[in-house]
Amino acid sequence: MSPREAEWDLVVIGAGPAGSAAAIAAMRADRSAKVLLLDAAAFPRAKARGDGIAPHAMDLLADLGVDVAELTAGSEPVSRLRLVSPGGVRFARPFTRPAFVVPRRVLDLRLVQAAQAAGAVLRRHRVRRLRPTDPCGSHRRRHPRPHGRRRGWRGETAPRTSATAKSSAPCRRPGRT
User: Fold this and answer.
1) What sign for the dihedral angle of Cα 56, 57, 58, 64?
2) Rounded CA separation 38/74 (Å)
3) Which of 44, 39, 50 is nearest to 113 (CA)?
4) Domain total for the chain?
5) Cα separation of 75 and 96, whole Å?
6) Residue 22's domain is classified under what CATH number?
7) Per-residue pLDDT averaged across 77-105, rounded?
8) Do the domain assignments include residue 149?
9) pLDDT tier, 156 (very low <50, low <70, confident <90, very high otherwise)
10) Could you tell me which of 173, 135, 168, 169 has the C-alpha nearest to residue 152?
11) 33, 36, 87, 130: most buried, per Cβ within 10 A?
12) Diameter over CA atoms, the chain
């Protein structure tokens, strides 16, 4: 079944660290979940920011079952912070726990691979717009949702396909039982 035809329990838009972690968390919560991870870029990809990983972020990833030793392989722990201002003022302080510096190109690829290993499906795809839908997948304007009913989201992607998140609410059209 192609990603255009499949029904997904969760569609995560963006496969960077947050998106990959969300996909890993969803798979950890329900191993049978169908999770689609969409990103406009191919992996590995270069990012100009965010190479530092704080200790608490490592804890969160470890709690999700990510092998942090594998994630930081080839990176030395950073145990001190030293800053020098343009005027020459210096500040230095040891960290309570070490941080790591992993290039985003490497970090993103390793986290995407961890999400795929957990069972998420990665597709290169650009999402252009999201709009709310009712649980049956119809656009909300055509079928107003009754009080208390959940709604999903439909993403309009390029080229003109859609990714729809399922709702756990029953699929009943207004006026029907």
Assistant:
1) positive
2) 28
3) 44
4) 1
5) 18
6) 3.50.50.60
7) 94
8) no
9) very low
10) 135
11) 36
12) 74
**pLDDT band of 45, cuts 50, 70, 90:** confident
**What torsion, rounded to 10 degrees, do the Cα atoms 15, 59, 104, 74 define?**
-130
Task: Give the separation between CA 142 and CA 151, rounded to whole angstroms.
Answer: 13
Domain extent for 65: 10-124
Bridge-based pairing state of the strands 35-39 and 121-124: parallel
Answer whether 0.90 is exceeded by the pTM: no
- Whether the pLDDT of residue 99 is over 70: the answer is yes
User: Are the C-beta atoms of residues 120 and 27 closer than 8 Å to each other?
Assistant: yes
Task: Provide the mean pLDDT of the chain.
Answer: 79
- The CA radius of gyration of the chain, in Å to the nearest whole number, is 21
In a domain, 129, yes or no: no
In degrees rounded to 5, what are phi and psi of residue 163? Answer: -120, 125
